Amino acid sequence: MSRIRVVVHGALGKMGQEVIKAVHKDSDTELTGVVDKYLSKDSENIPNCPITVPSSNNISELLLNTDVIVDFSNSEAASELIKIAPKSKTHLVIGSTGITEEIYQEARKQSEENNTGIVIAPNFAMGAVLMMHLAKIAGKWFEYADLIEMHHEGKIDSPSGTAIAIAESAGQDRKSKFQSPTSEKELIKNARGGVSKTGVSIHSGRMPGRVAFHELVFGHLGQTLTIKHDSINRESFMPGVILAVKAVSKTPGLTIGLEKIMGL
Fold first, then answer.
1. What is the pairing mode between strands 223-231 and 212-220?
2. What is the pLDDT of residues 84-108, one digit of tens each?
3. How many CA atoms lie within 13 A of 16 on its CB side?
4. Among 96, 56, 64, which residue's Cα sits nearest to residue 80?
5. For position 264, what pLDDT does the model report?
6. Helices H, strands E: what count in the chain?
7. Cα-Cα-Cα-Cα dihedral of 259, 205, 179, 140, to 10°?
8. Distance (Å, rounded) from C-alpha 192 to C-alpha 229?
9. Is residue 83 flagged as an active site residue?
10. Does residue 151 have an active-site annotation?
11. How far is CA 145 from CA 45, 172, 177, 217, in A?
12. Choosing from 14, 24, 109, 155, which is the catalytic residue?
């Protein structure tokens, strides 16, 4: 059986660097190219890349003989990638943050028109995905919910896409929003955090030493239930990424969320 040929898009980023190592290490995948807007076309010394592969700052140059592109760049670059890759019958696994509804719609259109697979997930850590699943189960039994999420100081968005997904999962089977009491006297503005569409109060922290941490606390009369997940390093996302790479060609159309691939 031939190995899955993979190009990493966003190769110079911290997640891209981990994907390079994970793809090279797995026996079913083959690293065949890397792309980053900061790469020169003749670049050979890619940090943490164990082998020399074709590199470019233009994805169009590496679409030939590519089965799957793994994208950890940004929403703008991912949006352009979605318009180009499916036309070359190349499947996509996208983990970039800030994916809008318009980008989802374009991904659905392109994948269906070109009979290709696109997987877009807010989080590739299997534990975080299981946390969303457990939040959905528990959500209908409690009336209050607070979510704390903490990431490294360089994260550009808050709250995290995972936090929003957890909050939505928690409220999915409810008939009404969670209660989110406000303080009569707010001594520091926004001390209660932001409130999601489902009524979950979300608090964001940004500091060195963190990768990704989420803690959801449900409350009811005389009891609380806490579900939390902590990604210690970026390796935690790689089993989920490789799982998606192996599944995407078998699932034509748009798949949103790793949970669908995991069968949850």
1. antiparallel
2. 999 999 999 999 988 999 999 999 9
3. 22
4. 96
5. 86
6. 7, 12
7. 20
8. 22
9. no
10. yes
11. 48, 13, 10, 6
12. 155
Structure tokens at 75: 């929403």
The rounded distance, in Å, linking the Cα atoms of 37 and 106 is 22
Which residue out of 9, 91, 136, 151 is catalytically annotated?
151
Mark out the alpha helices in the chain (DSSP H runs): 14-25, 75-84, 101-113, 126-139, 161-170, 238-247, 258-262
Cα 159 to Cα 223: distance, rounded to the nearest angstrom? 26
Distances (CA, A) of 213 to 91, 108, 223: 30, 30, 23
In what helix (H) or strand (E) does residue 146 lie, and over which residues does it extend?
strand 144-151
Per-residue pLDDT reduced to its tens digit, 114-159: 999 999 998 999 999 999 999 999 999 999 999 999 999 998 889 9
Of 30, 114, 128, the residue nearest 70 (C-alpha): 30
Q: Which of 157, 259, 151, 262 is nearest to 215 (CA)?
A: 151
Do residues 141 and 174 lie in contact, with contact meaning Cβ atoms separated by under 8 Å? no
Full set of structural domains in the chain with CATH: 4-120+235-262 (3.40.50.720), 126-232 (3.30.360.10)
Tell me if 236 sits within 8 A of 218, measured CB to CB: no
What was the pLDDT predicted at 41?
A: 65
Cα separation of 103 and 82, whole Å? 8
Q: How confident is the model at residue 44 (pLDDT cuts 50, 70, 90)?
A: low
